[in-house]
Amino acid sequence: MFINFWYVASTAADLKDQAVKVKMLGHTFVLFRDSKGQAQCLSNVCTHRGGSLAGGKVRGDTVECPYHGWRFKGGGACVKIPSLGPVDGAEHGKIPARTKIDAYPVQEKYGLIFVFLGDLPEAERPPIMEIPEYGKDGWRATVQQPGVWNIDYKRSIENSIDPAHNEYVHDTHGFSGERDDYRVHELNMKESTWGIGFFNKMHSPPLPEARMRAASGRTENAFIEAGTGHHGPSAVWTHIHPSPHAHIHQYLYETPIDERHTQVYLVTLRNFLATEDDDKRIMERNLYVAKQDKLILEDIEPIETPRTNTHEVFMPADVPIARFREFCKDWENRGWRIDMDKVVAMRGKAVFAIPSPARRESKGWVIDPVPMRTTEAGIKAAAE
Ligand code: FES
Ligand SMILES: [Fe+2]
């Protein structure tokens, strides 16, 4: 799992006026809305005696620890320690700076709440995967949560950018291995700063659902254009064009809960059947397809994506996966990969925090930062 990327912590609709506990990257966080409705995200562990902030009340712009009532603002500062007496009372002691808690940048977009889990300053942060069609005329969006999958999220990202699985896993867009002339057609690769993608031709049956099929205008098997790619370690875009004018563009944001569980968020844009009446139909189709992937992915061994490629055999259709792994290696070399072996060894004995941007500006944090994997390149860069 990698720090220094944006992760979806919740749908916007699910964050109301109560504090919510969210587990991401093996750590717990508290989400709450301040008095202006602005979403805030803090590390969930109280710096007093480890209380779970998410179990407490939201009071004005603060969240109150349920154990002894310390209050923390969205920026992470502790502003009230009840055992010291009223804050404005003459006898009130000073609140030590070390009570502060990591606070993370938050953006509410596309019906989702994105949190930047890392310590990079704003100018250096990788961007959120954009949805260019969102809110544009002619496009209709649905946001859904296909639930928690018992997988290493990287398995799912690799699955999404794997052109050879569609024929076998999805009867919605392949022929279940029944065609002798099946092959993966040439991948037109495209590369960006934060990932690779490709477009290729895919031989597909018409859309199975009658109303969608009629709206797409295609009733025969045909070669269709499809493209997919990843953005960062845990987000994927997929563009499917069932016919030249009917487009389905999907944006999948995966949030690693820990190294073996993943929360999946899916935003789907479509330019046909683009009214609310058809949302349910589209979401049902998405879930049908997602379940087919989940079934395969939850059964893969080993659970965790291998750290080297030497125990698997790669084919030309696997090039996108090989490139994804190279990107991951690069982020690891930047020192962004959590050392889960160390975290697991210390589980129950120590708690860590994902370092927040404020750690670059001030010292005196009570909770240690999570251990990161050190690589040769990382050690060299740190020495320079
Ligand atoms: S543990 Fe949070 S106030 Fe004591
Ligand atoms: Fe799939």
Give the SSE map.
Blueprint: E1 5-11, E2 20-24, E3 27-33, E4 39-43, E5 58-59, E6 62-64, E7 71-73, E8 78-80, E9 103-104, E10 106-109, E11 112-117, E12 140-149, H1 153-160, H2 166-169, E13 188-192, E14 195-204, H3 210-216, E15 222-231, E16 235-243, E17 246-258, E18 261-270, H4 279-297, H5 319-333, H6 340-345, E19 352-353, E20 368-369, H7 376-383
Parallel strand pairs: 19-20
Antiparallel strand pairs: 1-11, 2-3, 3-4, 4-9, 5-6, 6-7, 7-8, 10-11, 12-18, 13-14, 14-15, 15-16, 16-17, 17-18
Bound molecules: FE2/S2 (inorganic) cluster and fe (ii) ion.
The site of fe (ii) ion (FE2) has 5 residues, from loops.
Characterization of the model:
With 384 residues, this protein is α+β, with helices and mostly antiparallel strands. The chain has two domains: 1-128 and 340-384, Rieske [2Fe-2S] iron-sulphur domain (Rieske Iron-sulfur Protein), CATH 2.102.10.10; 140-328, Naphthalene 1,2-dioxygenase Alpha Subunit, Chain A, domain 1, CATH 3.90.380. It contains seven helices and 20 strands. The protein has helices at 153-160, 166-169, 210-216, 279-297, 319-333, 340-345, 376-383; strands spanning 5-11, 20-24, 27-33, 39-43, 58-59, 62-64, 71-73, 78-80, 103-104, 106-109, 112-117, 140-149, 188-192, 195-204, 222-231, 235-243, 246-258, 261-270, 352-353, 368-369. The site of FE2/S2 (inorganic) cluster has 10 residues, from loops.
